[in-house]
Amino acid sequence: xxxxxxxxxxxxxxxxxxxxxxxxxxxxxxxxxxxxxxxxxxxxxxxxxxxxxxxxxxxxxxxxxxxxxxxxxxxxxxxxxxxxxxxxxxxxxxxxxxxxxxxxxxxxxxxxxxxxxxxxxxxxxxxxxxxxxxxxxxxxxxxxxxxxxxxxxxxxxxxxxxxxxxxxxxxxxxxxxxxxxxxxxxxxxxxxxxxxxxxxxxxxxxxxxxxxxxxxxxxxxxxxxxxx
Length: 228
Fold this sequence. Notes:
Phosphoenolpyruvate Carboxykinase, domain 3; alpha+beta; three-stranded antiparallel beta sheet; 228 residues; 2 domains; 27% strand; 38% helix; single chain
């Protein structure tokens, strides 16, 4: 595919995406309206900086425990923290293509000051689509997505398999099961690889656990969002 065709295809996809209406349910819209719309916020998750050294320390820690060598055990326990760090990334805005899903999140009882909260479902248009990673997660609950589906979505977006596997392990080092991944970790990995948007298609989502199949869109750049 030559560059001209790629450019035309990208522009065509942008036009289609720009015509779409998305929804965001909030339990209290007052702060958002006071700030004039969505604002840039960040969040942090912990990850491993060097997997090889981290696993070596963990193995030594296990051996020290089995040998009941208290001095070695605490020595290696102190070393574990050297290979962990916080990854700060843009907190995505969560949208859905189904108004009924957004409505489940627009419950004033979820707000801190719920007695004075003003719940609302906002209609959103996108000014651009940027770099999208699409994860097909039909039948999965939104809060915990099948890892293989996540991996496939990143690879389809051009992410090298080896790079993804290493990054995945860095961010999910604490998990006993690798069958699924939390959405905050998906957001962190998406930022790591430079995504602007992550779409999770066919996922079961609602505030009360997930019962409606829809597409959830995670948007990092608030400047892409226009409330209509």
